[in-house]
Design brief:
CATH class of the domain at 145-238: Alpha Beta
Structural class: alpha+beta
Radius of gyration: 33 Å
CATH architecture of the domain at 145-238: Roll
Shape: elongated
Number of strands: 6
Number of helices: 10
């Protein structure tokens, strides 16, 4: 696997990074005065870990799954090149050109927008807010009855009746299932089918199980297209909500997106906006499927 960053990509990166580093120059000087970690030097000028962190944040998507040591090396090389070219540009008075000032103003606004929204969203979408949203959504989930079932599948009705007689004599259901069941998948587990929600199992088996209490098994064979079943209900419960840890990242992402849109809408409502080009709805992206 190769990790190639295009020349065009680096040019874009260098432009953005140069703008950001120019904006943050006072902060970098403070960091250097505080003896921040140094990852390189160009003509005696230090390149700090803070600059490396900014570069990594901006360019991580293009670096993909590159090993961390290789990623660090590539980014430090880029920062060295950035510093060399930026110094040459300053010597050539590029910083005094209108093109530079216009691009710098654009990237400054872009960076301010990013940091402003990031900070405001983080203050609103706290761990407590994520938990509260989870609790609210979990409370809205309609109850779904689930039954944990075991079954023994037989080829004929007579065999099924024989098994029922054996169970009535007191032999454990799981033990008999391991010996007699024709279902090779559940047989090693004593016929255990796990929890099955109402409406998701075989209709004939569900209908029979619905008449049983936990610990009871069918007293007559249950016929399906697969053969004849003897069914045991081990446990009945309402399906639990997904674990908080499982869905918390998705809930946080949704809350953050919603809060960001709320902030932007609030700011737009308070601003005087003039859009001097027609509103045009962009075409839908082609996902390769014909809908």
């Amino acid at each position: 696997m190769s990790y190639t960053i295009t020349s065009r990509g680096w040019k874009s990166y260098l432009l953005v990074a140069s703008a950001i580093l120019s904006i943050s120059a006072p902060f970098m000087q403070v960091a250097q005065a505080q003896e921040a970690n140094v990852v390189g030097r160009v003509n005696g000028q230090e390149i700090t870990a803070e600059e490396l962190a900014i570069a990594e944040q901006m360019y991580s998507p293009q670096l993909g799954q590159m090993p961390e040591d290789a990623k660090r090396s590539v980014l430090v090389d880029a920062l060295i090149e950035l510093r060399i070219v930026a110094d040459a540009a300053r010597a050539a008075n590029v910083a005094e050109q209108d093109a530079y000032k216009k691009q710098l103003a654009f990237f400054e606004a872009q960076t301010l927008r990013s940091l402003f929204l990031e900070q405001r969203v983080a203050s609103a979408v706290t761990d407590a807010a994520v938990r509260a949203a989870y609790d609210e959504q979990a409370a809205r989930i309609p109850p779904v009855t689930e039954r944990r079932l075991r079954h023994i599948l037989l080829r004929s009705e007579n065999e099924a009746r024989e098994v029922i007689d054996v169970l009535k004599s007191g032999r454990p259901f799981a033990e008999v299932a391991k010996e007699r069941s024709a279902d090779e998948v559940s047989k090693p587990n004593g016929g255990d089918l796990g929890f099955i929600a109402e409406g998701q199992g075989m209709p004939e088996v569900e209908a029979a199980a619905s008449t049983l209490k936990p610990g009871e098994f069918t007293q007559t064979p249950v016929a399906t297209a697969f053969g004849f079943h003897v069914v045991l209900v081990e446990e009945t419960r309402n399906r639990p909500a997904p674990a908080f840890e499982t869905v918390a990242p998705q809930i946080r992402q949704a809350l953050e997106a919603s809060e960001e849109q709320r902030i932007i809408s609030e700011l737009k409502a308070a601003a005087k906006i003039e859009k001097l080009v027609p509103d045009v709805t962009p075409p839908e992206a082609d996902d390769g499927h014909k809908h």
